[in-house]
Specification:
Layout lengths: L6 H30 L3 H10 L7 H24 L3 H18 L1 H11 L10 H26 L3 H21 L1 H11 L4 H38 L1
Helix pairs in contact: 1-2, 1-9, 3-4, 3-9, 4-6, 5-6, 6-7, 7-8, 7-9, 8-9
Amino acid sequence: MPILPNQMAKTLVFTLLAIDAAFIGAHLLASAFLQSGESRLAEIAYGRLTIYSDTALPESFGFGKWSFAFVFSVLGFALSRQRGFLGLAAASAFLFMDDAGQFHESVGEEFVRMEVPGIFGLDAASTGELFGFALLGLGVLAALAFCWLTSGAMLRRTVLLVIVAIGGMFLSGVPFDILHNLIAGASQGWAITELSGVIEDGGEMIFMSLYVALIFGAFEEVRGARQA
């Protein structure tokens, strides 16, 4: 069985991935122009197109993805009355709040402020971010567990695939975030620093697109069943 069960979901994921690739390419191009010699135009382009900033276009597009996933989870419930869609809506809301509100980063900053010692060789900020991710993970897993327990085969399959997508976001956002910070701090050069950054933030973007397409695919399944 294909990962995405219908053509609409496949079209959506390819569209989202194409936009992600365009943003990543624009980020690298703007960053390269800055390296070759700073100019006001390069600074403006990088400020608008970088995948690192919480206020640039790629991040705003990410907020739109979470909103899209939340809306179609709610619409899925409205069409089918399957309570599992409410679990998907809650998971999307938790992830959106972390992304938009920088929850796990805020926990890291709080660990630094309170001078909490790091663990496993990590500094206080990285340790706090891991702790924040753990709290976020509990909320998301509770929402997905609710979805699993209240759903039939179709939504249960969606939950399993959503967990894979979230796992990809976690791997991109935590280990590679720490690696990117270490490489940037050690001044390893533009190319290796950008590569680690693209794996981190670009990986999150790609797995987020898969997450959105999976939920939209589930919505399309119940919409198709209703029309049949």
